[in-house]
Design a protein that fits this description.
Elements: H1 2-22, H2 32-44, H3 47-71, E1 78-83, H4 93-98, H5 105-114, H6 121-132, E2 136-144, H7 148-158, E3 165-169, H8 179-191, E4 194-201, E5 215-217
Parallel strand pairs: 1-2, 1-4, 2-3, 4-5
Helix pairs in contact: 3-6
Organism: Legionella jordanis
InterPro entries: Acid_phosphat_B-like, APS1/VSP, HAD-like_sf, HAD_sf
Keywords: Glycoprotein, Signal
Length: 226
């Protein structure tokens, strides 16, 4: 009898253990209206700006140190950095709020064609410092190639006057993740003889795929791109 009870107990424990994996329990997610209010407060309180500045200052310090080390070498390398565009170099916050955090691709496309998104000032400061230290600038963005003209215009209006390359994904790109495109873009840059000392972006997908010495993740509670 005792042996039977122990066997039953072991069976019940095993079933319970398997159920934890087969049927995961989910707690109720945060209320959408509350989350929107919290994101607005995070931005408007200055906390978002402070976090942007903290990461970008770290990135700038790292880039300039790498440039100084490189300049002392007998055969210095061609150094470069990769910058994302949206929520990294320019801000779409006003449009995001106007759309109440929601939009379809047509609405986003129309906003991009306006070419009036304001600059993210600490990124522009980093850009200028890198240029002064002979570090080439490449922009790699998830925007589509059909938005090239508007994207170039917006960058110029924001103060980014020169760059070594601007990569936009093809309009025919169908992968659910932007990682393969951005990885291939960085690979292309390295094949041009550059060493990418830093990749800076607001999505984890900006930091995946290699072809960089170091990645810097900026805050973005507004949306996610895999």
């Amino acid at each position: 009898m005792k042996g039977t009870m122990r066997s039953i107990t072991r069976t019940l424990v095993a079933i319970t253990w398997l159920a934890c994996f087969a049927f995961p329990s989910y707690s109720e997610p945060g209320n959408l209206s509350v989350l929107k209010s919290e994101i607005k407060q995070y931005h408007d309180s200055g906390s978002y700006q402070k976090e942007l500045e903290r990461v970008l200052y770290q990135a700038q310090d790292y880039i300039l140190k790498q440039a100084e080390i490189n300049q002392k070498q007998k055969n210095p390398k061609k150094l470069a950095i990769v910058l994302d565009i949206d929520e990294t170099s320019i801000s779409n916050y006003n449009s995001i709020i106007h759309r109440d955090f929601g939009a379809d691709l047509n609405q986003i496309h129309k906003d991009i064609l306006e070419a009036n998104a304001p600059v993210i000032a600490p990124t522009l400061a980093l850009y200028k410092a890198a240029m002064e230290h002979n570090v080439a600038i490449f922009f790699v963005t998830g925007r589509h190639l059909s938005e090239l003209k508007a994207t170039r215009l917006n960058l110029l209006r924001a103060g980014f006057k020169n760059w070594a390359g601007l990569y936009l994904r093809p309009d025919t790109y169908r992968d659910s993740s932007i990682v393969p495109f951005k990885t291939k873009a960085r690979e292309s840059i390295t094949k041009q003889g550059y060493t990418i000392v830093a990749s800076i972006g607001d999505q984890q997908s900006d930091l995946k795929g290699g072809y960089m010495q170091k990645g810097f993740k900026l805050p973005n509670p507004f949306y996610h791109l895999p």
